[in-house]
Every structure is written in structure tokens, then in C-alpha cells.
Design brief:
Oligomer: single chain
Strand content: 15-25%
Largest sheet: 5 strands, antiparallel
Structural class: alpha+beta
Number of helices: 13
CATH class of the largest domain: Alpha Beta
Distance between the termini: 37 Å
């Protein structure tokens, strides 16, 4: 089964588990984002508390020395603070005066005494935030103003290493991905199994409906109907009732088709008898004439001429019938003369409907296509056109070909085809039994054209009648057994 890129065309067995998996992935992403966001907030709050305690202790300790601007004592306090505050991984700490110059730093080489603070750290001195994070570098900066009786004396700025906190976040993220992935796969598998179980009756019903479309009307086995005690059981029972009704209708259709076939054969037999009986009556009269006036040479020659013409007409009718309905044709070739013989078979129907026939056959002497099938197609279309023609109407037949195909065009001046017949001509596949609402002739034509790989185009309306174009591909090896 090939899947398209349109999810709306996918089967339920695939759409439902994919929907479940998609929802699970969405839920896991949302939950992971919420957990990571809460973890980040907790870590930031905890870090803020630790650094606050760290800065409180430092500011209290260095306040008297900042007032006196005692560099050595301030440095000593900063240096001892490294080992005392183990919860805060301070890379360095700097005490700066109000003018931005360095009073003392835990790393004197990086921040010499009396030098102005680097621009980045100087910016933190005027910031309203005591904690600034940079997750890309894994660093944080904290600052605290040193005051005495609401007088700003300077600031303490420290750089904190937060790589451990970020590592914890990554570990939590990885754990969430693994856990949510496992849960998502588990729920997707369970959803797939449950969805497949739930839609199994629909799949079963779909397969039997497809068989009905292909012409095989089969009931759903009883064990499947008995297994479904809910809506599906009633649906399967209704389908089986419909299948039984369709089988009865199909049997009735076959009976009607056989009756129509017998009626058609009766028409052809009566037509053939009419075409043979009329010349025979005249020929018997000529025999009596010869017996009475055979000694007269002119009468004898005229009678023999008429006898010959009558026998030729009978021969043409018999030969056309034999060629059309012969089962085991020795060759699949179509001879132009064999197609022309259909004119004799249709004479009786034409005269009965008082219609005239315009016959144009420009085919070569021999064409590479199944001759028996082509004659059957042409004869059925002629009979239908003749039946649809009004009194004194004209039926036109044109047969031509090119290097790739043979074309038959049949025109009549009737009231047009019904909509169901036009739709049936336009189908791409046909059942092996005639449908109830389409005549045997139309079904025969469509089935033969489909087997020969051809196509049919119909133009029909009340004003101009019906034009049917049959195009058949030429090939040399295909043979069709025509019933």
C-alpha cells in the first residue's frame, strides 16, 4: 500500500497511532519545558540566596577597611573568603571605590590596585540587578553597594562559576528526553495496537465492499459477525443482508440477460429468415416461369440472371452470419470485406424501422486487430443505433485506421442516450455480468473494448442524436475468444 503525502488519505490504522504519538510528544515537550523552567528558577533563586549571603558577609567585613581605604586588610578578607564560602565558586572578587578604581581584588594581577575597573565590570556597578547570568559562558556576576549611613562608599563585584548548575540542567534534560521518549514509544505502541484492534472491523468491511465493487458479492463470515456484539455486529448483519439482496438481483439480471440474448437472437434469426425467404419466393416463381416458358431464350436468360442475383443475396447473408458468429476464427486479423458483410445482417432491422444506412469503410484489406471482436462491437452498436433511430432516420457508419489504431464511428438521429448508459460507457473497468440498468448490447460493447485495450467516447443529446467513437489499438498477438 503506497502512502501519499496527504495525511487525510492515510488509513485509520496509521492516523490514530500517529495522532497518539504526536500528542504524547507534544505533552512531553511541554512537560519538559515546564520542568526545566522550574529547575532554572529554583537554581537561580538558590544561587541568588547563596550569593546574597556571600556578599552580605563580604560587605560587612570590608566596610571599615573601605572607609579607611586599607588595601591589605581588604585583600586579606577577600582571600580568606575563598575558603570560607565553599557553596559559591567565586572565580574572583573585586572591591571598587565609588569613582570606579580598584581598591583590592582577590586576583591582584588581573585587577591591579588603583586601576579603573574593566568596562564589563564597571557596567555591573550601575546595574539594578544583583545577579547577572551568562549561560553560554557558564558564568554569573553579582554586585553589592557598600554603604555607610546611606552614603555609597564603593561596590563589591564577584564572578561566579555556574558550570555545575548548567551541567545539572543538561543531565535533567537528558533524563527527561530518555524518559519521555520511552513513555512516548510505549504509548504509541499501545495506541497502535488498540487503534488497530478498534478499526479492524472497519478494515474488514472495507475489504468486502471493495470486492463488491470488483463484482464479487460475498457475505462476511459468521464468526466475524458473532464476534461483534455492538454496532459493528449490526453493521455486518446489514451488509450480509445487502449482499444477499445483491446476489438475488444479480441472478435476476443474468436471467434477464439470457432472455434479452434469446430475444436478440430471435430478431437476428427472423431478420435472416426474412432476407432469405423473400429471394426464395421470387426464385420459385422464376422456376415456374422457366418450366412454362423455358423455350424462349430471352425469358430464360432474364430468369437465370434473376436467379443468380437472388442466390448471391442469400450467400451474402449466410456468409455474414457465419463470419460474425463463428467461434474458432482461424486468424485474429480483420478483413475489410468481413466488416462490410454486416450491412447484410442489419438490412432487416433497417427496413423494419424504415431507416437508411450510410456505410463508409476505408480500412485496408487486412488490419491487425481481433476481427471477431470488432464485428461483435460494430454489430451491437448498429443494432442499438437502429433501435434508437426515428422513422426515415439515417444511421451512419465510418471505419478508418492509422498506424496505431482502428476507429469505428456510429451516428444516429435518435433522442440521445440516458445518463446511466453514458456513464457506463465512460467506465474504466466492467464486471463479468451485465448490470441490471444497462442493456446487454452496451455491456457487450464495453466489455469487448475494455479487453482489447480500447476506449469509447460518447456525444449524445436530444437535438443531434448520438455519436459513439470506438478506438482500438492495433496489435498482432492478442486473440480474444468471443462468446
Amino acid at each position: 500500500m503506497r502512502l501519499s503525502f496527504r495525511p487525510s488519505t492515510w488509513p485509520l490504522q496509521l492516523k490514530v497511532p500517529m495522532l497518539v504519538a504526536g500528542l504524547m510528544i507534544a505533552v512531553s515537550i511541554v512537560l519538559s519545558h515546564m520542568v526545566l523552567r522550574r529547575l532554572a528558577q529554583d537554581q537561580e533563586t538558590h544561587l541568588h540566596q547563596l550569593t546574597g549571603s556571600y556578599l552580605d558577609g563580604l560587605s560587612t567585613a570590608v566596610l571599615p577597611y573601605v572607609i579607611r581605604r586599607d588595601v591589605w586588610e581588604t585583600f586579606d578578607i577577600l582571600d580568606r573568603a575563598r575558603d570560607r564560602y565553599t557553596g559559591v565558586k567565586a572565580r574572583y572578587a573585586v572591591v571598587a571605590l565609588k569613582d570606579g578604581s580598584v581598591l583590592a581584588a582577590s586576583d591582584p594581577k588581573q585587577f591591579p590596585v588603583g586601576r579603573p575597573l574593566p568596562r564589563q565590570l564597571a557596567g555591573h556597578m550601575g546595574s539594578t540587578q544583583e545577579l547577572v547570568l551568562d549561560e553560554k559562558q557558564g558564568l554569573a556576576w553579582v554586585s553589592r553597594v557598600v554603604r555607610q549611613e546611606n552614603i555609597d562608599l564603593g561596590s563589591i563585584i564577584a564572578e561566579i562559576d555556574i558550570s555545575d548548575l548548567l551541567r545539572v540542567r543538561r543531565e535533567v534534560l537528558l533524563a527527561l528526553i530518555l524518559a519521555n521518549g520511552a513513555v512516548t514509544l510505549l504509548f504509541a505502541a499501545v495506541g497502535y495496537a488498540l487503534a488497530r484492534r478498534m478499526v479492524r472491523p472497519i478494515s474488514l468491511l472495507t475489504s468486502y465492499v471493495d470486492r463488491v465493487r470488483d463484482g464479487a458479492v460475498l457475505p462476511i463470515p459468521h464468526q466475524h459477525v458473532a464476534d461483534q456484539a455492538t454496532e459493528f455486529g449490526r453493521l455486518f448483519a446489514s451488509f450480509n443482508d445487502m449482499a444477499a439482496a445483491l446476489r438475488e438481483r444479480e441472478a435476476l439480471t443474468l436471467r434477464l440477460a439470457e432472455e434479452e440474448k434469446v430475444a436478440m437472437l430471435g430478431k437476428l434469426a427472423s431478420g435472416m429468415a426474412h432476407e432469405v425467404n423473400n429471394p426464395l419466393g421470387g426464385m420459385l416463381n422464376l422456376v415456374d416461369t422457366l418450366r412454362k416458358h423455358g423455350h424462349d431464350q430471352q425469358v430464360r436468360l432474364r430468369s437465370l440472371d434473376l436467379l443468380e442475383r437472388g442466390l448471391i443475396g442469400i450467400r451474402n447473408v449466410v456468409r455474414a452470419t457465419l463470419t460474425t458468429y463463428k467461434q474458432d476464427a482461424p486468424s485474429s486479423k480483420l478483413l475489410r470485406s468481413e466488416l462490410d458483410d454486416l450491412q447484410f445482417l442489419i438490412q432487416h432491422e433497417m427496413s423494419r424501422h424504415r431507416a437508411s444506412l450510410r456505410w463508409t469503410n476505408v480500412l485496408p484489406e487486412q488490419i491487425d486487430v481481433d476481427g471477431a471482436a470488432v464485428r461483435q462491437i460494430a454489430l451491437n452498436l448498429l443494432l442499438n443505433a437502429c433501435a434508437a433511430s426515428p422513422t426515415d432516420g439515417v444511421v451512419e457508419v465510418e471505419a478508418c485506421s492509422d498506424e496505431e489504431s482502428l476507429m469505428l464511428i456510429i451516428r444516429d438521429q435518435g433522442p440521445g442516450l440516458p445518463a446511466n448508459a453514458i456513464d457506463y460507457y465512460g467506465r474504466s473497468s466492467f464486471a463479468e455480468q451485465p448490470p441490471p440498468n444497462v442493456g446487454l448490447g452496451i455491456w457487450t460493447v464495453c466489455l469487448l473494448v475494455s479487453r482489447l485495450g480500447g476506449r469509447i467516447k460518447v456525444v449524445s443529446n436530444r437535438q443531434d442524436g448520438t455519436i459513439i467513437r470506438v478506438v482500438l489499438p492495433l496489435h498482432g498477438e492478442t486473440r480474444l475468444a468471443v462468446a
